[in-house]
């Protein structure tokens, strides 16, 4: 038996793992005691990774459907990729490069992302490449850029140990980032003075353990943060020197929050004014580390929410120092890496912006292409809407399951059925999206491929292959390279853009693209990561190590060098509850399942925590509808309905119901949770409002 050092492929904590194997089969996994993200700890999902590797259910061979009505049948890789290149080239010739799209995943490696991004923006000539990270992180990206000037979380995990207040907003850390939560628990034990404040409409496990829980109404975070700033100003708890020396835009925000007295915000947010004042005082006492995630991001005003929280840090000067800072937690294991290589419809490699002509020219030079197209591509929701309208005719879905995870499922599935040619590249055969594939390409999974990933604290870890992939499965980046060379032939180009034979060669090109940028990693190589272990960016050539915290000198990567206060008032949710749909539906994670359960759903042990999807509802709301605990109910929204059993939950606020995001059509009646959710998106980030939809619940009646 041997052990191979790698990293967990689930959440953004990015825990190091040691994979036990005999060279052909993964037999076990344990936490890597040397990895600074987890020091040997693993949560239930990480500790069962080897069971997902043993569970079967894999895509083993390419499968092609000759016509939409027919069955897919096994074909060779050569036939599969020749067909794929023919079909994509034909669409590009007949309808232009914007008639094709690629939809990626935050579960991919940085190298995978880099190649697919270059394929679309450098070879095909459109920016129609986006990712499921759009559903989880894009508001955080835009929030950081709007205020701090760059998409760079300034804090690190060590700050948990040094904080005086941990302010958790829109995150159930105990379930969604469990190893990080263990670190919070340890910090509380070591420092009894440490206070934890949780902002969450639900009384989650994280909220239950908090010193102060603000159970705000969904979508009212901006009003809460503005009211806290109002209190800080009134009580002279702001850092006027920091504001004067390192920020801009303060007078406008100061005037804006005047209208958010705690008493008024209490009306909007549905929490007592005294609790808002207490939260503000704890925030000012600090040092305060804010941890936030989907509750802020998955909103039609997600950027405003992120930025309003960052305003609090700027106003109190709590950034760039140990124990404080606005720290956005990434949902997926490599959402950060995808952002680094610009694998979104509006970004370019190394945090360059598509709308910046200089940046486009730099990338074109790096890649050796004439130009990078200026027109932004379609972000996730818009990409599938375009496919449904027939504007995207060839679509490639890589390592993700949009026929489950995107909002307003009925329309998404119409889109998948409508595209002329759909490639689904997947490790696991039984996903809702794979059922629609015209061409199914088998991909390597965790423990089977080389590469790198970046976790929430900007720390880059190496992914290493312990065993070869099963059947004919291949690494995602290698499939993209093989396809790209064939497409180069058909588009009359020389085979020059994709010379890579190894993941390391892709990494080396990505590394060079970061030279002189805020995330400069020119000092890192695979060899250095192997010998010195995971490193945080930036780590430029000559640096002794990566940098733990950013902005310690108070200089920000904006034109003026100052951080910017963001000035935007509170706006209600896109679809407020009303007489017809009087309940507010929130969706979220469970402790032991991951995303659409294509992996964790295969492991019986992980069903022990929650065996069946249930709608959580307050007993008073159930009584008003004459519903009994455990009864089958129909949940309806303007977009669709599903049948599910209801569970009485006194911790749920009245007027609100909760469904886990994990169950799709494979595990429940109907199309799953997202048949109900609304596709309203943040105007800046394009992130959909998965945290709120107006619904009604009624007895299912006779079946
Ligand atoms: Fe994996 Fe996240 Fe659990 Fe760590 S906390 S073991 S990264 S799922």
From TrEMBL:
Cite the entry's keywords alphabetically.
4Fe-4S, Electron transport, Iron, Iron-sulfur, Metal-binding, Molybdenum, Nitrate assimilation, Oxidoreductase, Periplasm, Signal, Transport
> Which cofactor is essential here?
Mo-bis(molybdopterin guanine dinucleotide); [4Fe-4S] cluster
GO cellular component, as recorded:
membrane; oxidoreductase complex
Alphabetical GO biological process terms: cellular respiration; nitrate assimilation
Q: Which residues form the 4Fe-4S Mo/W bis-MGD-type domain?
A: 1-57
Q: What enzyme category does the UniProt record give?
A: oxidoreductase
In the Enzyme Commission scheme, what number(s) does this protein have? Answer: 1.9.6.1
- Any idea which GO molecular function terms this record carries? 4 iron, 4 sulfur cluster binding; metal ion binding; molybdopterin cofactor binding; nitrate reductase (cytochrome) activity
List the catalytic activities from the record: 2 Fe(II)-[cytochrome] + nitrate + 2 H(+) = 2 Fe(III)-[cytochrome] + nitrite + H2O
* Family recorded in the similarity comment: Belongs to the prokaryotic molybdopterin-containing oxidoreductase family. NasA/NapA/NarB subfamily.
Name the job this protein performs: Catalytic subunit of the periplasmic nitrate reductase complex NapAB. Receives electrons from NapB and catalyzes the reduction of nitrate to nitrite.
This protein is called what? nitrate reductase (cytochrome)
Organism encoding this protein: Sulfuritortus calidifontis
């Amino acid at each position: 038996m041997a052990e191979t050092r790698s990293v967990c492929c689930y959440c953004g904590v990015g825990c190091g793992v040691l994979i036990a194997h005999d060279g052909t089969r993964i037999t076990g996994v344990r936490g890597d005691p040397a990895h600074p993200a987890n020091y040997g700890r693993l949560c239930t999902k990480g500790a069962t990774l080897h069971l997902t590797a043993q569970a079967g259910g894999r895509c083993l061979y390419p499968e092609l459907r000759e016509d939409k009505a027919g069955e897919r049948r096994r074909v060779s890789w050569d036939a599969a990729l020749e067909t794929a290149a023919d079909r994509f080239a034909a669409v590009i010739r007949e309808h232009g490069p914007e008639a094709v799209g690629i939809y990626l995943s935050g579960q991919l490696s940085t190298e995978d992302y880099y190649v697919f991004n270059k394929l679309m923006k450098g070879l095909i000539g459109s920016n129609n490449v986006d990712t499921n990270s759009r559903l989880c992180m894009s508001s955080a990206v835009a929030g950081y850029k709007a205020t701090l000037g760059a998409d760079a979380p300034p804090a690190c995990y060590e700050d948990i140990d040094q904080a005086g207040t941990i302010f958790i907003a829109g995150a159930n850390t105990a379930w969604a980032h469990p190893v990080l939560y263990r670190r919070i628990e340890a910090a509380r034990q070591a420092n009894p003075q440490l206070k934890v404040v949780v902002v969450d409409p639900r009384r989650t496990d994280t909220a239950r353990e908090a010193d102060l829980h603000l159970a705000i109404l969904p979508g009212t975070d901006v009003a809460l943060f503005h009211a806290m700033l109002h209190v800080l100003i009134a009580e002279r708890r702001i850092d006027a020197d920091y504001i004067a020396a390192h920020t801009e835009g303060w007078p406008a925000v100061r005037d804006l929050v005047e209208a958010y007295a705690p008493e008024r915000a209490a009306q909007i947010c549905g929490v007592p004014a005294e609790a808002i004042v207490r939260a503000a005082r704890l925030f000012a006492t600090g040092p305060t580390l804010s941890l936030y995630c989907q509750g802020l991001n998955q909103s039609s005003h997600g950027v405003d929410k992120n930025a309003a929280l960052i305003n609090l840090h700027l106003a109190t000067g709590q950034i760039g120092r140990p124990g404080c800072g606005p720290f956005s937690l990434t949902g997926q294991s490599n959402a950060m890496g995808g952002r680094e290589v610009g694998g979104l419809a509006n970004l370019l490699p190394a945090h360059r912006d598509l709308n910046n002509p200089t940046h486009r020219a730099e990338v074109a030079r790096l890649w050796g292409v004439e130009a990078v197209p200026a027109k932004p591509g379609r972000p996730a929701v818009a990409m599938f809407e375009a496919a449904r309208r027939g504007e995207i005719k060839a679509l490639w879905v890589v390592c993700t399951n949009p026929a489950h995870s995107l909002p307003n499922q009925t329309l998404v599935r119409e889109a998948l059925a409508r595209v002329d040619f759909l490639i689904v590249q997947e490790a696991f055969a039984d996903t809702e999206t794979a059922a629609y594939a015209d061409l199914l390409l088998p991909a390597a999974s965790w423990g089977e491929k080389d590469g790198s990933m970046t976790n929430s604290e900007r720390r880059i870890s190496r992914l290493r292959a312990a065993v070869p992939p099963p059947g004919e499965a291949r690494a995602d980046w290698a499939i993209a390279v093989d396809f790209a060379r064939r497409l180069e032939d058909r588009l009359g180009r020389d085979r020059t853009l994709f010379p890579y034979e190894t993941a390391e060669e892709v990494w080396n090109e990505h590394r060079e693209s970061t030279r002189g940028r805020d995330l400069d990693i020119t000092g890192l190589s695979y060899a250095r990561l192997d010998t010195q272990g995971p490193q945080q960016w930036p780590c430029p050539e000559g640096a002794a190590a990566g940098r733990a915290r950013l902005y310690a000198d108070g200089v920000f990567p904006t034109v003026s060098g100052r951080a910017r206060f963001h000035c935007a008032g509170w706006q209600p949710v896109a679809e407020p509850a009303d007489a017809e749909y009087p309940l507010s539906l929130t969706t979220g994670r469970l402790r032991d399942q991951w995303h659409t359960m294509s992996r964790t759903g295969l492991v019986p042990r992980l069903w022990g925590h929650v065996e069946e999807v249930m709608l959580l509802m307050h007993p008073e709301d159930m009584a008003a509808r004459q519903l009994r605990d455990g009864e089958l109910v129909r949940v309806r929204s303007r977009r669709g309905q599903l049948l599910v059993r209801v569970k009485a939950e006194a911790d749920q606020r009245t007027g609100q119901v909760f469904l886990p995001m994990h169950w799709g059509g494979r595990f429940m009646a109907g199309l799953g949770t997202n048949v109900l959710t609304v596709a309203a998106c943040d105007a800046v980030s394009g992130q959909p409002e998965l945290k709120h939809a107006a619904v009604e619940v009624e007895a299912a009646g006779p079946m």
